[in-house]
Give the backbone structure.
Amino acid sequence: DGILLGICGGVRKAGLIEDDQCSLERMCFRYALTREAVLQELMGPDRRRRAAALMRAAQAMADERSTETPLEWLVGYAIDAGDRPAAFAYSAAAGRQSLALSGVAEAAAHFQRALDLWVPVAGEAARAEALLDLGRSVRFEQPERALAVMGEARALFQTLGDRASAAVTLATAAGIRRTL
């Protein structure tokens, strides 16, 4: 962490990064091209290692200050670090956060990304929940897709022996069918 802070200090003095105007606890690149050039230079294992360190540091800072790190940051760090289970979990959490704020289109994108990143180690139950949440988020704009996704979620819940979640999924799908 000390090495990273030293590097950030030097880069800041060079004028390539600056304090984030929304939060003085964060830094951002002054120019998008600088960010892109830096990320292109950090390829392969070195980039994954640094992204993993940034993910851990961001989470530790949030825990230390009792604040939330923006989930988009954590998703990006997890993807860059090659940590698919963490990227899945952060994407699903971002989707739930967006749904809570009535951002259904954004939530759908988060849930779809989560499902694209899903790996078996993340758990079948978590996948079923993400499928159900995706169905809920697209129910008004894409009801047919919602029904298909919910059918997949229900079958998965049944396979897992989670009868209550299977019933919730079935009831939600019935509500969608009534609107068609």
